[in-house]
């Protein structure tokens, strides 16, 4: 004995009626979109640049060494600052 007594046309009508209801639930978001928290800066950004070396002697060789150390220190800190700036705000670039 057959327990399903619906007609084939009635079954098709039920399927056609239920499909829009089932598909509309899948397109609606279940919760509002939450804003993403800003990314944390890298640990390198929390490092302090070393202090500026003191010029101890007034000789020419000492002055050359001191200026070379100072320029190296400046470029290292500038690179570190640029990397941290890009990590914190990637959409903002300096010319």
Biggest sheet features: none
| Protein structure class | mainly alpha
- The helix-strand sequence is HH
Overall, the morphology is: rod-shaped
Percentage of residues in helical conformation = 40-55%
Unreliable runs, pLDDT <50, ≥5 residues?
none
Q: Strand fraction band?
A: under 5%
Number of helices: 2
Radius of gyration: 34 Å
The count of strands amounts to 0
Mean pLDDT: 76
Distance between the termini: 82 Å
Describe the structure.
It is a single chain. The chain is mostly helical and 95 residues long. Helices cover 52% and strands 0% of the residues. The chain is built from two helices and no strands. It has helices at 8-27, 60-88. The longest helix is centred in the C-terminal third of the chain and has 29 residues, at 60-88. The radius of gyration is 34 Å and the shape is rod-shaped. The relative contact order is 0.10.
Describe this structure in a few short sentences.
This protein is mainly α and 95 residues long.
Question: What is the topology?
Answer:
Layout: H1 8-27, H2 60-88
Feature tags:
single chain, 95 residues, mainly alpha
């Amino acid at each position: 004995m057959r327990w399903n007594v619906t007609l084939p046309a009635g079954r098709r009508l039920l399927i056609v009626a239920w499909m829009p209801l089932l598909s509309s639930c899948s397109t609606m978001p279940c919760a509002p979109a939450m804003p993403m928290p800003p990314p944390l800066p890298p640990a390198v950004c929390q490092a302090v640049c070393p202090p500026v070396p003191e010029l101890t002697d007034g000789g020419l060789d000492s002055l050359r060494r001191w200026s070379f150390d100072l320029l190296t220190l400046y470029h290292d800190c500038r690179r570190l600052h640029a990397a941290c700036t890009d990590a914190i705000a990637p959409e903002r670039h300096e010319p």
